[in-house]
Design goal:
Elements lengths: L2 E4 L10 E6 L5 E9 L2 E9 L11 H14 L12 H14 L4 H19 L9 H13 L14 H21 L26 H9 L7 H14 L3 H5 L6 E2 L4 E4 L2 E3 L2 E3 L8 E4 L2 H13 L21 H14 L10 H12 L4 H8 L4 H4 L12 H9 L16
Antiparallel strand pairs: 1-2, 2-3, 3-4, 5-6, 6-9, 7-8
Helix pairs in contact: 2-3, 3-5, 6-7, 6-10, 7-9, 7-11
Length: 409
């Protein structure tokens, strides 16, 4: 019969433990157990040295072998190692990069670490960080006080705070799975509430035509005009338009296929799985793209549709916004609009035309239907709604007034 004898001394999280197991004949063997990557590992260490014997392992020798095995476990912290926030952040971003995360995601994580998380926690060990410590960081962010003696900034919005603390939450969860800490202090934190922003800025169809006609920036005139019209009538994101290639324009099927995105100077996959999609190509868009194709010297399948006329490469996003606002001023429109408002234009116009929200979600590449629902207020009301309300309050019996004996007609 096998007997298990638990080790008496209690150990801190992640350092593992020894126990002895005896077989039917009474021979005893050291075993070790520890946690890493969120799972428990058990390994045979070796025979236990009996009293007065030179064979087998003493407790000290078994402890040393246990430490060696733990240290060789992929992803495990060394026994006794206390990772600082800086080192944990470095390992976490390396893990994200190895996992194939998008450059935009890596840039956001590195920004949160560099601007807030690492300066605030400095060289503190992550296994010593408590919920109240994270709450202090949130207070600084709300006040616009940068940690580590950095210059002040304006108070951060609830959404920005939640994004930064979300990075910390993901990092601490990763550290917990790795056995670097025993708890995640972010889980019990109350974060600022984000008030939904229902304000959507968009252009009317006549304004879209006006801004397209006002694209008069010399060399960029033809590409900008086609860009504005296509953005407003397909709902593609700016990065998706920049990455669009001629092979993605299906003239026969009358559709534009979204296969790539351009973010932070790199081509990659679209924002989410749903963002890989195809969108109907209206005749107006097809006409603009046809004119642009005939005027362009870059007509290969892999050439960019909206290629920079001077370089043949992708358009610069900052320059797109400058020229877009210049066109707005020429058209005597509000130059506070941003390029993304053309995407909102597509969403609001499609909703107003009665396109079902599920269909609009597919066309716009929204991962969550809740994002698409922001356009629901622009959808036309069914003609029979008023009749439904009237019918609900219609009664075959007269309504009795408060005065006794008086019946309302």
């Amino acid at each position: 019969m096998t007997t298990s004898l638990a080790e008496k001394p209690r150990r801190s999280y992640g350092t593992g433990g020894l126990f002895v197991r005896a077989d039917r004949s009474g021979r005893q063997t050291w075993y070790g157990k520890w946690r890493t990557n969120g799972r428990q590992i058990k390994r045979r260490i070796g025979p236990k040295r009996g009293e007065g014997s030179r064979d087998g392992l003493t407790r000290t020798q078994a402890e040393a072998e246990l430490r060696r095995l733990i240290a060789e476990t992929p992803g495990a912290a060394r026994v006794g190692e206390r990772l600082t926030m800086h080192e944990a952040g470095r390992r976490y971003t390396r893990y994200l990069a190895a996992s194939g995360r998008k450059p935009s995601t890596l840039a956001a994580v590195r920004g949160h670490l560099a601007h807030w998380i690492e300066p605030f926690f400095a060289d503190r060990a992550i296994d010593g960080i408590r919920t109240e410590d994270v709450a202090d960081l949130v207070t600084l962010m709300q006040a616009g006080q940068r940690p580590g003696g950095l210059r002040r900034t304006k108070p951060l919005s609830p959404k920005t705070i939640r994004n930064a603390i979300g990075t910390l939450n993901a990092l601490m969860s990763y550290a917990q799975r790795k056995g670097w800490t025993g708890s995640n202090p972010v889980l019990d934190l109350e974060l600022p509430v984000v008030e939904p922003d229902e304000d959507i800025r968009f252009l009317e169809p006549v304004e879209v035509e006006a801004v397209g006609a006002a694209a008069t920036s010399g060399t960029y005139e033809a590409v900008d005009r086609a860009l504005y019209i296509t953005a407003a009538m397909t709902g593609l994101r700016q990065g998706e338009l920049i990455a669009l290639r001629w092979r993605d324009v299906d003239w026969t099927a009358g559709r534009i296929r979204v296969r790539q995105n351009y973010v932070l100077g790199e081509f990659g996959t679209p924002k989410s799985r749903r963002s890989t999609r195809s969108v109907p190509m209206a005749d107006r868009v097809a006409g603009e793209l046809d004119s642009l194709f005939k005027a362009s010297s870059m007509q290969g399948d892999d050439d960019l549709v909206f290629a920079d006329p001077l370089t043949g490469g992708p358009l610069a996003k900052a320059a797109i916004l400058r020229r877009f606002r210049k066109a707005l001023r020429v058209a005597r429109l509000d130059d506070a609009h941003v390029f993304h408002d053309l995407r909102h234009t597509f969403g609001t116009r499609m909703a107003a035309a009665g396109v079902p929200m599920r269909t609009l979600q597919e066309w716009m590449g929204h991962r969550d239907i809740a994002t698409t629902q922001r356009y629901a207020d622009y959808a036309p009301a069914p003609e029979h709604e008023a009749a439904l309300i009237a019918g609900a309050f219609r009664s075959s019996s007269p309504i009795v007034s408060a005065a006794p004996g008086v019946v309302s007609p």
